[in-house]
Write a structure and sequence with these properties.
Radius of gyration: 18 Å
Structural class: alpha/beta
Distance between the termini: 26 Å
Order of helices and strands: HEHEHHEHEHEEHHEHHEHHEHE
Strand content: 5-15%
Length: 294
């Protein structure tokens, strides 16, 4: 079997937690640092700053770390790029998702997903047309991924196409789709969202939820409404065999007024509950984590 390009999916297949950092599209210094880090994946943000698709290509290139390749012997050692889209789920924008994938992203984060239809529309945009066992065709991604093919080391479209499908609906797929859920409407529809074939996981957007539920003051990750949301999302993910994710800090990240840290007791509780995808404010994978228990 060909080596996995997607470290996030590789870890999720084995039931292990995956840790990611974030940077804005076009932050070349940040991309270099991220590439040399110990993170498993990187959220490249097109939503809040840096919506520039050619710069996305530059950012992905600068994340490639020959230092990590030499140290690990793995040509795909750098953090897997997962692109955070700039639009909300209800806006149903496909062309940005298509271009992000064609530049080489191995996954997409969909902000503010609120319904099953929001997710199903993006699933269709991310998948090349395929027939199921009954002969029905699904998937509407268009064909011209020459940049992605080169980025991931393929010379033939068929090779890239075999990889470029969504996990876990395709057990061999190397693309991830994570829906960020954070609003009262998303909570109301959480079970329907989780059941969409092609979705890889859901991420609880705690900071967004705090404001979406009209709360004020310092964010409290153990606020009863946030705990209920997080718990119901986790249960929906587990019922549908997809990954559940959350952030590890209520503080702003580095560069936005925060110092950047990982709350280890909080992390261990979430791992024990069954969460597997984490966006951190640290500098890499948390040190001192008992991998055997994780």
């Amino acid at each position: 079997m060909a080596p996995s390009r997607n470290r996030l999916i590789e870890l999720l297949r084995s039931g292990k937690p995956a840790f990611g950092g974030s940077l804005h599209c076009g932050d070349i210094a940040g991309a270099r640092a991220m590439g040399d880090s110990t993170f498993d994946f990187t959220m490249v943000d097109l939503e809040h700053e840096g919506f520039d698709l050619p710069k996305l290509g530059d950012t992905l290139q600068w994340m490639q770390s020959r230092r990590r390749m030499a140290a690990t012997g793995n040509m795909f050692a750098s953090p897997t790029p997962i692109v955070r889209l700039p639009h909300h789920g209800s806006e149903r924008v496909r062309w940005i998702a298509s271009q992000a994938l064609d530049y080489g992203a191995l996954g997409l984060l969909l902000p503010y997903a609120e319904s099953a239809d929001d997710v199903a529309d993006l699933v269709s945009a991310m998948r090349y047309a395929r027939r199921d066992a009954e002969g029905r065709i699904s998937g509407e991604r268009r064909v011209w991924p020459k940049l992605a093919m080169r980025y991931w080391g393929y010379s033939k479209f068929e090779e890239y196409r075999d990889m470029a499908d969504l996990w876990p609906v395709n057990p061999d797929g190397e693309l991830a789709l994570i829906a960020i859920v954070a609003t009262p409407k998303a909570l109301e529809n959480i079970d329907e969202i989780a059941s969409v074939p092609g979705l890889s996981g859901m991420m609880f957007g705690a900071k967004h939820a705090w404001h979406a539920f009209a709360k004020e003051g310092t964010i409290d990750l153990e606020d009863p409404e946030l705990v209920e949301f997080r718990t119901r999302m986790l249960a929906a993910c587990q019922r549908n065999g997809i990954a559940a994710g959350t952030s590890l800090s209520a503080r702003p990240p580095k560069g936005a007024g925060g110092k950047g840290f990982v709350d280890m007791p909080y992390l261990r509780r979430r791992i024990d509950e069954g969460f597997r995808v984490f966006l951190t404010q640290g500098d890499g994978r948390p040190e001192g984590l008992d991998e055997d228990k994780a």
